[in-house]
Amino acid sequence: MADYIQVVTTVPSKEEGEQIALALLEKRLVGCVQIVGPIESLYWWQGKIERSGEWLCVAKTERELFAQIEETIKALHSYEVPEILAVPIVEGSESYLRWLEKQLQ
Fold it and tell me: Per CATH, which fold does 1-43+63-79 belong to?
Protein backbone atom coordinates (compact mmCIF):
# COMPACT_ATOMS: atom_id res chain seq x y z
CA MET A 1 0.00 0.00 0.00
CA ALA A 2 1.20 3.56 -0.73
CA ASP A 3 2.48 6.05 1.82
CA TYR A 4 -0.40 8.40 2.65
CA ILE A 5 -0.22 11.97 3.94
CA GLN A 6 -2.47 14.83 4.92
CA VAL A 7 -1.53 18.14 3.35
CA VAL A 8 -2.52 21.18 5.37
CA THR A 9 -2.83 24.79 4.26
CA THR A 10 -4.59 27.87 5.59
CA VAL A 11 -6.37 30.40 3.40
CA PRO A 12 -7.95 33.81 4.02
CA SER A 13 -11.43 32.86 2.81
CA LYS A 14 -13.68 29.86 2.36
CA GLU A 15 -13.92 30.69 -1.35
CA GLU A 16 -10.16 30.48 -1.81
CA GLY A 17 -10.15 27.17 0.05
CA GLU A 18 -12.87 25.83 -2.25
CA GLN A 19 -10.96 27.01 -5.35
CA ILE A 20 -7.82 25.20 -4.21
CA ALA A 21 -9.77 22.09 -3.16
CA LEU A 22 -11.54 21.83 -6.52
CA ALA A 23 -8.29 22.25 -8.46
CA LEU A 24 -6.62 19.49 -6.44
CA LEU A 25 -9.62 17.19 -6.86
CA GLU A 26 -9.99 17.84 -10.59
CA LYS A 27 -6.31 16.97 -11.10
CA ARG A 28 -6.84 13.77 -9.05
CA LEU A 29 -4.06 14.84 -6.68
CA VAL A 30 -6.21 14.33 -3.58
CA GLY A 31 -9.12 12.11 -2.65
CA CYS A 32 -10.74 14.50 -0.19
CA VAL A 33 -10.33 18.04 1.13
CA GLN A 34 -11.96 19.24 4.32
CA ILE A 35 -12.36 23.00 4.78
CA VAL A 36 -12.70 24.00 8.42
CA GLY A 37 -13.35 27.43 9.80
CA PRO A 38 -13.27 30.12 10.41
CA ILE A 39 -10.26 29.73 12.69
CA GLU A 40 -8.08 32.37 14.31
CA SER A 41 -4.34 32.32 13.63
CA LEU A 42 -1.64 34.18 15.52
CA TYR A 43 1.81 34.23 13.93
CA TRP A 44 5.00 36.18 13.37
CA TRP A 45 5.09 38.21 10.14
CA GLN A 46 7.68 40.82 9.20
CA GLY A 47 8.94 41.22 12.76
CA LYS A 48 5.65 41.48 14.62
CA ILE A 49 2.87 39.26 15.90
CA GLU A 50 -0.16 39.23 13.61
CA ARG A 51 -3.68 37.88 14.08
CA SER A 52 -6.07 36.93 11.29
CA GLY A 53 -9.15 34.89 10.55
CA GLU A 54 -8.45 31.96 8.25
CA TRP A 55 -9.87 28.69 6.96
CA LEU A 56 -7.98 25.39 7.36
CA CYS A 57 -7.81 22.98 4.42
CA VAL A 58 -6.83 19.36 5.06
CA ALA A 59 -6.27 17.15 2.00
CA LYS A 60 -5.76 13.37 1.95
CA THR A 61 -3.36 11.97 -0.63
CA GLU A 62 -0.25 9.91 -1.40
CA ARG A 63 3.20 11.16 -0.47
CA GLU A 64 4.46 10.85 -4.07
CA LEU A 65 1.97 13.54 -5.18
CA PHE A 66 3.19 16.21 -2.74
CA ALA A 67 5.31 18.20 -5.23
CA GLN A 68 2.37 18.56 -7.63
CA ILE A 69 0.04 19.49 -4.78
CA GLU A 70 2.47 22.12 -3.52
CA GLU A 71 2.80 23.57 -7.03
CA THR A 72 -1.00 23.72 -7.45
CA ILE A 73 -1.56 25.37 -4.07
CA LYS A 74 1.17 27.96 -4.67
CA ALA A 75 -0.30 28.83 -8.08
CA LEU A 76 -3.73 29.56 -6.58
CA HIS A 77 -2.87 30.84 -3.10
CA SER A 78 -3.02 34.57 -2.33
CA TYR A 79 -0.41 34.54 0.46
CA GLU A 80 3.20 35.51 -0.18
CA VAL A 81 4.31 32.53 1.94
CA PRO A 82 1.49 29.99 2.19
CA GLU A 83 1.55 27.28 4.82
CA ILE A 84 1.86 23.94 3.00
CA LEU A 85 2.68 21.09 5.35
CA ALA A 86 2.54 17.32 4.89
CA VAL A 87 1.78 15.10 7.86
CA PRO A 88 2.24 11.33 7.51
CA ILE A 89 -0.74 9.07 8.06
CA VAL A 90 0.75 6.32 10.19
CA GLU A 91 -2.44 4.25 10.50
CA GLY A 92 -5.88 4.27 8.93
CA SER A 93 -8.83 2.02 8.35
CA GLU A 94 -8.06 -0.34 5.51
CA SER A 95 -11.36 0.37 3.76
CA TYR A 96 -10.78 4.15 3.84
CA LEU A 97 -7.23 3.85 2.54
CA ARG A 98 -8.42 1.56 -0.29
CA TRP A 99 -11.09 4.15 -1.14
CA LEU A 100 -8.45 6.92 -1.11
CA GLU A 101 -6.16 4.93 -3.38
CA LYS A 102 -8.97 4.47 -5.94
CA GLN A 103 -9.67 8.22 -6.01
CA LEU A 104 -6.09 9.00 -6.98
CA GLN A 105 -6.07 6.82 -10.10
Answer: Alpha-Beta Plaits (3.30.70)
